[in-house]
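Section 5.1 Outputs to date
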Amino acid sequence: MAAAKGVCLHHIARETSNVERLSNFYQQLLGFEKIESPKFGEFEVVWLRLPPVFSLHIIERNPNSKLPEGPWSSTSTEIVAANPESLSRAHHLCFAVSNYHEFVQTLKEREIKIFEKTQPDGKTKQVFFFDPDGNGLEVGSWEAPKE
């Protein structure tokens, strides 16, 4: 029996050297909405929401952090050019969309390097790619879960 009761995912945080660029990426590509963010004073933070309840917190990287930055520096002006094929089993966030083919076309138009995969059932399609900081993302053609 689990120690915690009533557990649900509340938010995921991404630390970045370029808060505006990373938050714009998630807003423009996946439809996150900017919501009221607390003012911490010493660092910038943007909170994004994907209706109805999922939140993504984009937080300015602590310049004194001993932790390594993401796989690629967010100071680059180009979309990450690494091979997304390695993401099919690696760490990534995954989203489902109802307009999979249109979404993939948008990625191609933005010249974001992708890796597509179709599951053995022939129905489920997945695309893997990176955000501007090199965080792995997957988008699939699954139906939205029923509440």
